[in-house]
Amino acid sequence: MLGFILFAFGMIALIHLYLWKRLVRDTTRKGRWRRAGTVAAIALAVLLPVTLVGTRMGQWWLAWPGYMWLAVMFYLIVMLVLLELPMLVAKLWLRRRNPTHTSALVGVGVGVDQGAPPAAHHDTPEQLPDQPGTRGADLDRRLLLARGAAIFAGLTAVGVSGYGIRSALGAPQLDRVTIPLAKLPRTMDGLRIALVSDIHLGPLRGRSHTERIVNMINGMDADIVAVVGDLVDGSVEELGVAAAPLRDLRAKRGSYFVTGNHEYFSGYAEWVDEVARLGLRPLRNERLEIDGLDLAGVNDVVGEDYDDGPDFAKTFDGRDTSRPVVLLAHQPVQAHDAAKHGVDLQLSGHTHGGQMVPFSLLVALEQPVLSGLGTVDGTKVYVTNGAGFWGPPVRVGAPPQVTLVELRAAT
Fold first, then answer.
1. Cα 169-248-308 angle, rounded to 5 deg
2. Does the bond joining 310 to the residue before it have cis omega, within 30 degrees of 0?
3. Whole-number average pLDDT of the chain
4. Could you tell me if residue 375 is inside a domain?
């Protein structure tokens, strides 16, 4: 844990050093503006760890400024990195277009005036004369270029973050997917499962968020409701009121819940009891027979650190392999184990669909399915984007989602 904390703090420092160089040092001359920018960069660098630690300690007022800066910072880095090559090309073009600055530098040194003091060799750009053909003029061009890039990156980062806020805080979209299962009996054809994941009740999402999701699900007239983890980011004491509307969920064959990784960070034992009290049945490494279908649920892989990990052998021990089985598992990566036990369909969340493009590229390296329907080792896996968000209240390229899964008997 200490090593991870030191690594995280080191990365935060390096990121803000890069932002300071591109947005402050490269765009200003020495003076009060550079000093003000330096102070701001340091304050923003400190804000991130303070937010991460403070919100865990109940200081939820830190969430909005801290997580909003995290989103803008992310897109600033993306834009500035994308601009590095065009900026380099522009600088080389300016240098070729204005080669006289080299001879001017010689004149400023000892090449023209042999009597000039040696200290002239060490003049900084800010100290050199701002005249045509001198490095002062070259500095002005570089400042103009750097300022243009900084303004473009800043406006783009703020604009994309603003769009992402609107998406994240808006109503989840309702997606419908039809999935054929070879073993599904005709009597179960058309079974409807309302799937929701990653609601993430916490500092920025409360009771009204839960109520909206419950109303959406109840409007589906589903046979089964499946809540596949990451319901909360806080304790029952902090978020019990926010989760209370779950008691109003309606489903013909019941509502079910499996743990996600964030339940283990939030007091999973209390939340399992609370969810059961609200009328959802926790499936904790267990399997139920629902007419001609087996519905199973396993704990999240993070539970292994809490002696409460997934147990596939226990879950599927003695099952009738002629019956189709639908597995609720928070993380798509759990499908590798599910496939070994003949699972026909796994329903998952966890990925948020990447939440913020291009961060989705990193998530896809960890999980075998990022969003939607895929296949892992012969097992079908459907991954919902989730109805909430974690960290920044921003979603770009991965809108919040509640999914109605309709199972069909294969023809």
1. 80
2. no
3. 90
4. yes
What pLDDT does residue 321 have? 92
Task: Provide the token pair at 215.
Answer: 């109303």
| Structural domain of 161 | 2-110+122-167
At 383, the amino acid letter reads V
Distances (CA, A) of 33 to 24, 25, 69, 187: 8, 10, 21, 73
* CA-based nearest residue to 93, from 150, 145, 129: 145
Taking only the tens place, the pLDDT of each residue in 238-269 is 999 999 999 999 999 999 999 999 999 999 99
One-letter amino acid of 193: I
Neighbours of 136 (CB within 10 A): 18
Confidence label for 93 from pLDDT (cuts 50, 70 and 90): confident
Q: Is the pLDDT of residue 379 over 50?
A: yes
Q: Are 157 and 256 members of one domain?
A: no
Residue 116 within a domain: no
Place of tokens 């294969």: 410
Structure tokens given for 314? 């226990």
Specify whether the CB–CB gap between 335 and 377 falls below 8 A: yes
